[in-house]
Recover the amino acids of this structure.
């Protein structure tokens, strides 16, 4: 079942690049932007997250924590974060639990890979309610960041 605007965001518990556990329930009181990406170190994913990095003031001013999420391990995500100077956390969904909960996973991806995140964006308000949801079938496209930023302004 796909995630709908207005519903409670599914809980998750994932590890960041510092091997620290991040739980959605511990982020209450802040807006949260979840950006699911297929893989670290790929062109579209790098461009998407660099765009967020370069506009981080918009999200910070909106009291939003930003997280990039992929199936990559915390170790490879750490290198990706360092290489690109990302100023937000990257989370490993190696076991595909968050992707499953947010219904944003390709059953089959390029080259026969299974269980890869669909490029997706979910904006969650301070109370844990989904306020924006976008799941893209085409991994070559990126979320509508103008719409995400407009939505962030309305929930503050």
């Amino acid at each position: 079942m796909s995630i709908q605007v207005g519903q409670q965001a599914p809980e998750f518990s994932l590890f960041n690049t510092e091997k620290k556990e991040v739980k959605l329930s511990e982020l209450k009181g802040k807006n949260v932007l979840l950006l699911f990406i297929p893989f670290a170190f790929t062109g579209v994913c790098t461009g998407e997250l660099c765009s967020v990095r370069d506009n981080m003031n918009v999200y910070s001013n909106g009291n939003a924590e930003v997280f990039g999420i992929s199936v990559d391990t915390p170790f490879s995500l750490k290198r990706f974060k360092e290489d690109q100077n990302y100023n937000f956390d990257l989370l490993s969904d190696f076991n595909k639990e968050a992707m499953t909960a947010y219904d944003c996973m390709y059953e089959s991806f390029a080259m026969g890979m299974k269980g890869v995140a669909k490029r997706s964006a979910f904006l969650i308000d301070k109370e844990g309610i989904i306020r924006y949801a976008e799941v893209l079938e085409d991994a070559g496209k990126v979320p509508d960041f103008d719409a995400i930023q407009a939505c962030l302004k309305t929930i503050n």
